[in-house]
Amino acid sequence: MADLVEMPTAETPETLALTPKAVRMVKLTREEENLDDSFGLRVAVRGGGCSGFEYALDFDREPRDTDEVLEYEGLRVFVDPVSLRYLSGTTIDYELGMSGTGFKFLNPKASGTCGCGSSFAV
Predict the structure, then answer these.
(1) CA–CA distance from 103 to each of 5, 64, 91, 118 (Å)?
(2) What's the sign of the alpha-carbon dihedral 100, 107, 111, 81?
(3) Is 83 exposed, middle or buried (0-12, 13-18, 19+ CB in 10 A)?
(4) Is residue 120 pLDDT above 80, yes or no?
(5) What is the per-residue pLDDT across 60-73, written as a single tens digit (0 to 9) for each?
(6) Alpha carbon distance 62, 77 (integer Å)
(7) pTM value?
(8) Could you write out the DSSP letters of every residue in 40-74?
(9) φ, ψ dihedrals at 82, nearest 5°
(10) Residue scoring higher pLDDT (19 or 115)
Protein backbone atom coordinates (compact mmCIF):
# COMPACT_ATOMS: atom_id res chain seq x y z
CA MET A 1 0.00 0.00 0.00
CA ALA A 2 1.17 3.55 -0.73
CA ASP A 3 2.62 5.71 2.04
CA LEU A 4 0.43 8.37 3.62
CA VAL A 5 1.79 11.87 3.09
CA GLU A 6 0.97 14.82 5.32
CA MET A 7 -0.86 17.83 3.92
CA PRO A 8 1.57 19.86 1.80
CA THR A 9 2.87 23.16 3.07
CA ALA A 10 4.48 26.15 1.39
CA GLU A 11 7.80 24.32 1.81
CA THR A 12 6.58 21.43 -0.39
CA PRO A 13 5.15 23.12 -3.51
CA GLU A 14 5.80 20.04 -5.65
CA THR A 15 2.78 18.33 -4.11
CA LEU A 16 -0.87 18.67 -5.10
CA ALA A 17 -2.98 20.85 -2.75
CA LEU A 18 -6.71 21.14 -2.10
CA THR A 19 -8.28 24.22 -0.56
CA PRO A 20 -10.56 23.74 2.46
CA LYS A 21 -13.56 24.64 0.25
CA ALA A 22 -12.59 21.94 -2.27
CA VAL A 23 -12.23 19.38 0.52
CA ARG A 24 -15.70 20.26 1.87
CA MET A 25 -17.25 19.91 -1.59
CA VAL A 26 -15.56 16.54 -2.22
CA LYS A 27 -16.86 15.26 1.12
CA LEU A 28 -20.36 16.59 0.35
CA THR A 29 -20.32 14.97 -3.11
CA ARG A 30 -19.13 11.68 -1.62
CA GLU A 31 -22.01 11.80 0.87
CA GLU A 32 -24.53 12.64 -1.87
CA GLU A 33 -23.32 9.61 -3.84
CA ASN A 34 -23.91 7.42 -0.75
CA LEU A 35 -20.22 6.56 -0.40
CA ASP A 36 -18.77 6.12 3.07
CA ASP A 37 -15.68 7.85 4.47
CA SER A 38 -13.44 4.98 3.35
CA PHE A 39 -13.62 6.28 -0.24
CA GLY A 40 -10.88 8.67 -1.27
CA LEU A 41 -10.64 11.10 -4.16
CA ARG A 42 -8.70 9.99 -7.23
CA VAL A 43 -7.15 12.91 -9.11
CA ALA A 44 -5.72 12.14 -12.54
CA VAL A 45 -4.62 13.63 -15.83
CA ARG A 46 -5.69 11.95 -19.06
CA GLY A 47 -4.94 12.59 -22.69
CA GLY A 48 -7.80 14.37 -24.43
CA GLY A 49 -9.85 17.48 -24.12
CA CYS A 50 -9.59 20.46 -26.43
CA SER A 51 -6.15 21.47 -25.10
CA GLY A 52 -4.42 18.07 -25.07
CA PHE A 53 -4.89 16.91 -21.46
CA GLU A 54 -7.88 16.83 -19.16
CA TYR A 55 -8.32 16.61 -15.42
CA ALA A 56 -10.27 13.71 -13.95
CA LEU A 57 -11.83 13.36 -10.50
CA ASP A 58 -13.40 10.17 -9.21
CA PHE A 59 -13.84 8.18 -6.01
CA ASP A 60 -11.85 5.07 -5.17
CA ARG A 61 -11.97 2.88 -2.08
CA GLU A 62 -8.25 2.04 -2.02
CA PRO A 63 -5.08 3.46 -3.56
CA ARG A 64 -3.16 1.51 -6.16
CA ASP A 65 0.30 0.21 -5.26
CA THR A 66 2.15 3.07 -6.98
CA ASP A 67 -0.19 5.92 -5.95
CA GLU A 68 0.90 8.88 -3.91
CA VAL A 69 -1.58 9.15 -1.04
CA LEU A 70 -2.22 12.61 0.41
CA GLU A 71 -4.59 13.54 3.21
CA TYR A 72 -6.57 16.74 3.70
CA GLU A 73 -8.84 17.10 6.74
CA GLY A 74 -9.42 13.33 6.83
CA LEU A 75 -9.96 13.03 3.06
CA ARG A 76 -7.54 10.68 1.32
CA VAL A 77 -6.44 11.75 -2.17
CA PHE A 78 -4.88 9.26 -4.60
CA VAL A 79 -2.64 10.36 -7.47
CA ASP A 80 -0.78 8.05 -9.84
CA PRO A 81 2.89 8.88 -10.56
CA VAL A 82 2.34 9.98 -14.18
CA SER A 83 -0.49 12.34 -13.26
CA LEU A 84 1.53 13.74 -10.36
CA ARG A 85 4.19 14.93 -12.82
CA TYR A 86 1.57 17.14 -14.49
CA LEU A 87 -0.17 18.11 -11.23
CA SER A 88 2.76 18.92 -8.96
CA GLY A 89 2.36 22.44 -7.63
CA THR A 90 -1.34 22.49 -8.56
CA THR A 91 -4.02 23.73 -6.18
CA ILE A 92 -7.57 22.46 -6.58
CA ASP A 93 -10.23 24.92 -5.46
CA TYR A 94 -14.01 25.01 -5.65
CA GLU A 95 -15.72 28.11 -6.99
CA LEU A 96 -19.32 29.27 -6.85
CA GLY A 97 -20.04 32.03 -9.30
CA MET A 98 -22.18 33.41 -12.07
CA SER A 99 -19.76 32.18 -14.71
CA GLY A 100 -19.79 28.65 -13.40
CA THR A 101 -19.63 26.42 -10.38
CA GLY A 102 -17.17 23.62 -9.88
CA PHE A 103 -13.65 22.51 -9.19
CA LYS A 104 -10.92 24.77 -10.53
CA PHE A 105 -7.36 23.60 -11.12
CA LEU A 106 -4.68 26.24 -10.59
CA ASN A 107 -1.82 24.50 -12.39
CA PRO A 108 1.47 26.38 -12.75
CA LYS A 109 2.63 23.84 -15.38
CA ALA A 110 -0.29 24.58 -17.73
CA SER A 111 0.79 26.71 -20.67
CA GLY A 112 -2.80 27.11 -21.80
CA THR A 113 -6.33 26.08 -20.95
CA CYS A 114 -9.62 25.83 -22.77
CA GLY A 115 -12.72 27.84 -22.04
CA CYS A 116 -14.34 25.08 -19.99
CA GLY A 117 -11.36 24.88 -17.63
CA SER A 118 -11.23 21.10 -17.62
CA SER A 119 -8.44 20.67 -20.15
CA PHE A 120 -4.96 22.13 -20.45
CA ALA A 121 -1.71 22.10 -22.41
CA VAL A 122 1.86 21.90 -21.11
Answers:
(1) 22, 24, 10, 9
(2) negative
(3) buried
(4) no
(5) 999 999 999 999 99
(6) 10
(7) 0.78
(8) EEEEEEEEETTTEEEEEEEEESS--TT-EEEEETT
(9) -65, -45
(10) 19
